[in-house]
From TrEMBL:
It comes from Streptomyces boncukensis. InterPro entries: MFS (IPR011701), MFS_dom (IPR020846), MFS_trans_sf (IPR036259). The lineage of its organism: Bacteria, Bacillati, Actinomycetota, Actinomycetes, Kitasatosporales. Keywords: Membrane, Transmembrane, Transmembrane helix. It holds the Pfam family MFS_1. It is a multi-pass membrane protein. One of its GO terms (cellular component) is plasma membrane. Residues 1-380 form the Major facilitator superfamily (MFS) profile domain. This is MFS transporter. One of its GO terms (molecular function) is transmembrane transporter activity. It is found in: Cell membrane. The keyword Isomerase does not apply. The keyword Ribosomal protein does not apply. Coiled coil: none annotated.
Length: 380
């Protein structure tokens, strides 16, 4: 069951990041500059945050089988519509809707965390995070290569259909939850929003986890969203397919995720989070140097993925244990992370247009400062 849920996580999360490596091809098809459609990548993250706020809290009350199947089918339909979009505006609407429905993994994470033994919760979450980052890599590498050969519209359609199929299969295999069948009255998105707000207001530990991961994810999003613009322009001049292969460095995250879970179980989440911010002191200068040196860009890509996934496992473990409503807590946590990522992605496109790669690195640095400094001395 854990392996199937990890597979579902990988396939579903790929939809959120699919547009980023295809920006060049999308821009060509619409007759505009790549920097002019960079906002579509940020729209995907905003859509995911909106979907989390509306749907993910239902993991505490709603019937997961029905919710997972309905959302997976929704992704398939909206991705098919996005693949036929005649312009950037309608494509953005489709990406937003598909990303909002791609919250399936966040309905399943509380299920896994709740059924895992307390001493192995970090390792179980680590397996799911390995699936998540494998999906991110697949979106960039396979999506970029396939789009180079068949066009971005075919890739959007195929990914949506695959998500629908795997999501329905996962829903059918989930354990029965007969006690939730009578909760139709509480399976209301507005009730979920209220539960999330109460969880955030009542737990300082949850708010700290949100802040820390928002900073890490914001820095990663700023750099990774604009990376395709750097690689396909000066000084590298790579094709979209070749630039997509750079996503293979993201496999470092898939390897580190289970190890991070074990470290969280042994050392505690706070120590692991502090370690990830210390690691940022090393990889951020390498990203800046990577504007002209390919070896530095490669090294930075490995380190940033290792730091991001370690922080993700640690902060999510903190969030899930912070309240008596883990789905609501998980929703607040992931919404905060993706809000930080979406804001940094949007700013990075503007920064790249005005100041080049140095501006993108400055946005990443600001995200880390905002995520790491406030509340750093709080005891918890």
């Amino acid at each position: 069951m854990l392996a199937l849920i990890a597979l579902c996580t990988a396939v579903t999360v790929a939809n959120i990041y699919l547009a980023a490596p295809l920006l060049g091809l999308i821009a060509d098809s619409f007759g505009t500059a790549a920097s002019g459609v960079g906002w579509i990548a940020a729209v995907g993250q905003l859509g995911y945050a909106a979907g989390l706020l509306l749907f993910a809290p239902l993991g505490d009350t709603a019937h997961r089988r029905k919710a997972v199947a309905a959302l997976a089918l929704g992704v398939g339909g909206t991705m098919a519509a996005a693949s036929a979009a005649p312009g950037a505006a309608l494509l953005g609407v489709g990406v937003f809707a598909a990303s909002a429905a791609s919250v399936v993994p966040q309905l399943l994470v509380p299920l896994v965390a709740g059924r895992a033994p307390a001493g192995r919760r970090g390792r179980h979450i680590g397996v799911l995070m390995a699936g998540l980052f494998t999906g991110v890599v697949a979106a960039r590498v396979l999506g970029g290569a396939a789009a180079q050969a068949y066009g971005w519209r075919v890739v959007f359609l195929a990914t949506g259909l695959l998500t629908a199929a795997v999501g329905v299969l996962t829903a059918a295999a989930l354990p029965a939850e007969p006690g939730r069948a009578g909760h139709a009255a509480t399976a209301n998105p507005l009730h979920g929003v209220l539960r999330t707000g109460r969880a955030l207001a009542g737990s300082a530990e949850l708010r700290r986890a949100c802040l820390r991961q928002g900073g890490l994810f914001g820095a990663w999003s700023a750099l990774w969203t604009s990376l395709v613009l750097l690689l396909t322009g000066e000084p590298y001049h790579l094709t979209t397919g070749a630039a997509g292969l750079f996503g293979l460095f993201g496999l470092a995250a898939s390897v580190v995720a289970p190890l991070s879970g074990s470290l969280v179980d042994r050392l505690g989440a706070r120590r692991v989070v502090r370690g990830t911010y210390a690691l940022a002191v090393l990889w951020l200068p390498l990203w800046w140097l990577g504007g002209h040196q390919l070896w530095a860009l490669c090294a930075a890509a490995v380190l940033v993925h290792a730091g991001l996934v370690a922080g993700q496992v640690a902060n999510q473990s903190r969030a899930l244990a912070a309240t008596a409503t883990p789905a609501a807590a998980n929703t607040g946590y992931v919404v905060a992370a993706f809000a930080g990522g979406a804001a940094a992605s949007a700013l990075s496109g503007v920064a790249f247009g005005h100041w080049g790669w140095t501006g993108v690195c400055a946005v990443a640095a600001c995200a880390l400062v905002l995520g790491g400094l406030p509340g750093a001395r709080s005891r918890g």
